[in-house]
Amino acid sequence: MKIKSYKNFIFDLYGTLVDIRTNEENPYLWKRISELYTSLGAPYSPGELKKSYKQAVNEAAEHVQKKGEKIFGKEFLGEPDLTAVFRQLYQVKGASCDPKQAAMTANFFRILSRQKLQVYNGVKETLQRLRDNGRGVYLLSNAQRDFTRPDMELVGLTDCFDGILISSEEGCKKPSPVFFCRLLERYGLKPDTCLMMGNDVNADIAGARGVLMDTLYIHTETSPPFIEKPAADYTVMDGDWNKAAEILLTAAGQ
To answer: Which residues face 215 on adjacent strands?
Structure first.
């Protein structure tokens, strides 16, 4: 397999660099989070809070999608900020909630729902070697700010990138070309100098190919199912990060 040279490397986060497992259906989660709301002046039963949360998330997603389509067209895929949803759930009960409290609530929700959070072996060392070799290293993640930025702090990834784009902060998500182009424009990158690595055939691989980036697909335990073989320039089908690192470092001239 011939490997090209690239100046910039763009990574998905969850399932690509980090192994994460969450369970938002756990009754214990809704019991504890409802206790938090109630103690802060917004009384909810666990069942009521779960239902209200899911309804508010759907409404927020619909609003962001309609607003974005008016500007960018049908290729747009919206991503709501769930921290605003957590804040709204206080306010509909007549309780005050400032941005700091909303972010704390979102973080608490994440802690309660998170079952596993672990960086794959070799990730940090590879990212550092890419940067040491003068390559740009960027993160493009479909994620929630107040879930993901604390997650990254916990596993020590925050300072591993030259730029980070999180979908909830941008209001759009992969595989929309809007999200990819925002990264390219913000950091002055040309698609033909970039290699996108991800574990999702649609969001990461098809999305990157849609803006003419080359791609590296890694199949991990949390990869979404697919029917046809990923149409990526490079593939690691057994989840072995050592193989992925070899491709990345070769592509960086090491």
So the answer is: 196
User: Which amino acid does the sequence have at 196?
Assistant: M
Helix axes of 27-39 and 99-113: crossing angle, nearest 10 degrees: 160
Beta bridge partners of 22: 114
Has residue 89 got a pLDDT over 80? yes
The whole-angstrom distance between residue 83's C-alpha and the CA centroid of its chain comes to: 15
Q: Using CA atoms, how far apart are residues 52 and 197, in angstroms rounded to an integer?
A: 36
Identity of the amino acid at 251 = A
Quote the pLDDT of residue 123: 98
Partners of 165 in beta bridges = 140
Residues 102, 85 contacting (CB under 8 angstroms): no
Q: H or E stretch including 85?
A: helix 82-91
Record the tokens describing residue 70, joined without a space.
């008016």
Cα–chain center distance at 178: 15
* Strand partners for 78: 172
Which residues, 6 or more positions from 30, have their beta carbon under 8 angstroms from its beta carbon?
46, 47, 49, 50
CB 175 within 8 A of CB 210: yes
pLDDT at 188: 98
Q: At which residue do the structure tokens 């149409």 appear?
A: 231
User: Is 44 within 8 Å of 38 (Cβ atoms)?
Assistant: yes
Asked whether residue 39 carries a pLDDT value surpassing 90, the answer given is yes
Instruction: Work out whether strand 194-198 and strand 8-11 pair parallel, antiparallel, or are unpaired.
Output: parallel
Checking if the pLDDT of 1 tops 80, the result is no
